[in-house]
Amino acid sequence: MICPVCAVDNLPGSDECDNCGADLRGAELPVAHGAFEAVLLRERLADLEPRRPIAVGPDDPVTTAIALMQEHRIGCLTVERGGRLVGILTERDLVQKLAGRPIPGILVRDVMTPDPVVLRDDDTIAVAIHKMAVGGFRHIPLVRGGLVTGIVSARDLSHHLVTLLG
Predict the structure, then answer these.
(1) How high is the pLDDT of residue 143?
(2) In Å, how far are 28, 134, 146, 163, 164 from 36, measured between CA atoms?
(3) Dist CA 104 CA 100 (whole Å)
(4) Where are the beta strands (DSSP E) in the chain?
(5) Which of 72, 27, 31 is CA-nearest to residue 54?
(6) Domain spans of the chain?
(7) How many angstroms separate the CA atoms of 27 and 123, rounded?
(8) What CATH number matches the domain at 35-165, 3.10.580.10, 3.40.640.10, 3.40.50.720, 3.30.450.20?
(9) Is 80 exceeded by the pLDDT of residue 29?
(10) CA angle 26, 30, 32 (to 5 degrees)
(11) Which of 9, 77, 91, 97 is the most buried if burial means most Cβ atoms within 10 Å?
């Protein structure tokens, strides 16, 4: 991704220019050519009224995390230490990292994705769709001031898009 400020080539999906520190979060977004695209570039993730995710600690047993995911019928948990996000634990993490392993004794930190991609609630829906597509994931924690404020899933976005199109 070419920085619009200093013209240095950065890694695709970078939030900040490695050279000058310029904000690159919207640099790859398309220009709206119609009403629908304009809505995606205008509406903020806060407009989706994202839910507060359920959190576990990195030192919690993975069996506790699995039970919480089953109880709440959700596909991910945030992993927090002292209210700060340190990781995310998804169904994909569990399937890929626990297959064929005995589960007792395994801790959340052993299977979580550390330092996940995050967004803010004032980021646009288009940015979230882009990040999910580039990163190949289905959940993005929303963070403000280092604290988790919500979580947005691909399902949340698809339901919202269907509403916009309906």
Answers:
(1) 94
(2) 18, 21, 32, 12, 8
(3) 12
(4) 55-56, 76-81, 84-90, 113-114, 139-144, 147-153
(5) 72
(6) 35-165
(7) 13
(8) 3.10.580.10
(9) no
(10) 115
(11) 77
Whether the full predicted model's pTM is greater than 0.90, yes or no, is no
In contact, 21 and 8? CB cutoff 8 Å: no
Q: CB of 18 within 8 A of CB of 10?
A: yes
CA–CA separation, 154 and 147 (whole Å) = 21
Q: How distant, in Å, are the alpha carbons of 9, 111, 130, 140 from that of 3?
A: 6, 34, 17, 24
Each residue of 87-146: pLDDT tens digit? Answer: 999 999 999 999 888 898 999 999 999 999 999 999 998 889 889 998 999 999 999 988
